Fold this protein.
Amino acid sequence: MDIFDESSQVTPEKEPGNIAFIDGQNLHLGAKDGNWSIDHKKLRIYLRDKYHITEAYYFLGFVSEGYQELYDNLQRAGFILSFREHSSALRGSKKGNVDSDIVFGIMKKLAENEPFGKAFIISGDGDYKKLVDYLIKKERFGKVLFPNRKFASSLYKNLGGEFFAYLEDIKAKIAYGE
């Protein structure tokens, strides 16, 4: 066998991809506030191509049979669905409130040394500010992607421009009918 045969060469391990954590209700309401709708398939392709996101976790308030078509479409688009647990007595009156689930999901990946590049968050919620600061310090943060300017918490006002973007700016790429 030729020692220069390519099939016998060791190839470097592929770097782990980036991950996204999406506050589904915040994303939906942010787009709705701007009078447009997210095409989830286009969004997933955009996240893959622009930010090299290999896993995208889409957090939803709770399971409801009335939204099964949405859940199916999200899964077909390549999102990993995560539902917030609620008591059945509170389901009608409680909002999604997935913030702690997203924070826990990211911290669990860090604590268990799961391989990933950088974490991206899609939400305008200021509840993630401490997490964002920590991830920046550890050089594990990509960006926070705000649905629109109005949904961007003022807590992020001192965040460097390299750490955030507005989805409304790429509406033409990720909206239905665009």
User: Anything to note?
Assistant: The chain has one domain: 21-174.
